[in-house]
Amino acid sequence: MHPKEEKTFVLVKPDGVRKGLIGEIITRFERRDMKIVALEMFMPTKDQINDHYPKDEAWIRRVGQKTFGTYEKYGYDPVQEIGTDDDLKAGSMVREWLVDFMTSAPLVRMVVQGIHAVDMVRKIAGETMPYKADMGTIRGDFSNDSPLLANKEQRPVLNILHASETPEEAAHEIKHWFGESEIYDYKRFGVDN
Length: 193
Ligand code: ADP
Hints:
Blueprint: E1 7-12, H1 14-18, H2 22-31, E2 35-42, H3 46-52, H4 57-74, H5 78-82, H6 87-102, E3 107-113, H7 117-125, H8 138-142, H9 147-152, E4 161-163, H10 167-177
Antiparallel strand pairs: 1-3, 1-4, 2-3
Residues 63, 66-67, 94, 98, 128, 147, 150-151, 156-157, 159, 162, 165 line the site of adenosine-5'-diphosphate (ADP).
């Protein structure tokens, strides 16, 4: 594959759509010489979201650990806060909240192409936890949330968008969300010629 053909998958989440950030998000990718090669607003089903997020134990535990890491840092007791100190249980709760949240409003799905598309888009998006995300990133500029509050309110952390984490994940997600005929090939001025 030519380096300019790397692709990644992005979903603007309900909070991103409802905050009116669709255009802002696309602009930030495009101004960094990334090319939008597929784009659509749609209403997802619970099954589609359930199949989008990983189901393996390691991923679920990692999500739970993010909660416990924040609790530890700020001196909160996990059992008092969410009734468990088991990362698998905490991660499973978050996963269920995610499925409900992601089907609460239309989403925007897109495929973004360019050099190091996966890493570049993650960098533009910023860290998962908005309170940690650097200023200048989408999450750092337009959101402020933490597991401290989200878990108390039994919802996922609101961080505007999803972006694939690895090229393998990107390939899987692009296939899950788009047919091949929906991905376009065109030359961008100043980028491709
Ligand atoms: P990312 O979206 O940055 O790839 P993850 O794949 O780790 O992050 O998690 C998926 C989504 O689940 C996050 O974007 C966030 O909305 C939510 N989330 C992750 N960990 C937690 C947590 N500990 N508490 C609440 N929500 C979480």
